[in-house]
Amino acid sequence: MWAFAVTVFLWSFYNVGTRSVNSDNAIIGMGLFVGGLAMFMAGMWEFPRGNVFGATFFTLYGSFWISYAASVFLLGVNSFSTEVPTTKDALGLYLMIWFIITFFFFLAVIRVNIAFSVLLFFWGLSYIMLSTSHWSNHHGQSLRDAGGAFGFVTALISLYIGLSQVHAAEYSLIRMPTGNINKEHSV
């Protein structure tokens, strides 16, 4: 969860334009290796454990980060560019597809775990704001800022979930609740 959190956190800094950043090239390394490879491998490790949700979640979002970083690196796509309308439209569609995937994940956990439900709710809001920011001529930066803000919330929730998983070990003195509703199908 921390690989997801720190990558979303960095990406959110770029989306809100922190320190006048107008290029997302610095996300390449983080997207390829931390958010991408590490999460993809975590997904593969979840399959033998029988955790279908974890395997699918980590594998798909690891793939998201790899594909996003590859688009920035190999294709020279700059999500901050306002010059090429077709690139903006394509990025908007790309992010909308990931919103749909996130919505399906949200439906899968809404009756199982509160923390994951809230995480996916805010991550979905982030995707939809970022997607529509590429299609809006007048409110693009405001929508991008909102998407980045929802990304920060997502990253903080993800950090909390990751910390709760670390402390879930039997030898830990601290138990951090994540709101498991259905004990049979906990995430």
UniProtKB/TrEMBL annotation:
Indicate how the chain sits in the lipid bilayer. Answer: Multi-pass membrane protein
A single Gene Ontology MF term assigned here is: acetate transmembrane transporter activity
The alphabetized UniProt keywords are: Membrane, Signal, Transmembrane, Transmembrane helix
Q: Where are the transmembrane segments?
A: 27-45, 52-75, 95-125, 146-163
Annotated signal sequence range: 1-20
Highest taxon of the source? Eukaryota
Q: Which InterPro entries match?
A: AceTr, Gpr1/Fun34/SatP-like
Keyword check for Signal: yes
What's any one GO cellular component for it? plasma membrane
Localization: Membrane
Q: Does the keyword Transmembrane apply?
A: yes
Pfam families in alphabetical order? Gpr1_Fun34_YaaH (PF01184)
Q: What is the protein's major site of localization?
A: membrane
Q: Which family does it belong to?
A: Belongs to the acetate uptake transporter (AceTr) (TC 2.A.96) family.
- What name appears for this protein in its UniProt entry? Glyoxylate pathway regulator
